[in-house]
Amino acid sequence: QVQLVESGGGLVQAGASLRLSCAASGGTFNDYHMGWFRQAPGKEREFIAWISRFYGITNYGDSVKGRFTISRDNAKNTVSLQMNSLKPEDTAVYYCAAQQAGRGKYEYWGQGTQVTVSS
Prior knowledge:
The protein is mostly beta strands. The chain is built from no helices and eleven strands. The radius of gyration is 13 Å and the shape is globular.
């Protein structure tokens, strides 16, 4: 059983930067690819970014390409999301999730952290 805890959310102005972190415990971190998702009120959950368990292979949702960067530190069991040039439409609850290698679904999810971007 893997536990994921996000941190780093907050209220910022448009154009600012924010860095989210997700700490994992209770499992072997590098057994899992990691992803970030977000969900705004009244909207579907949206894929943001993905990073492979090794070699730092990444993938991003179209809405954040060029602005957000996902990274991980397997020694510290953490995955981060650097968010630059934030826009009001980035306002959402952000979740990290763990995807076991070889499986499609994300098996473990954090509780989420709120990011609010004011105009």
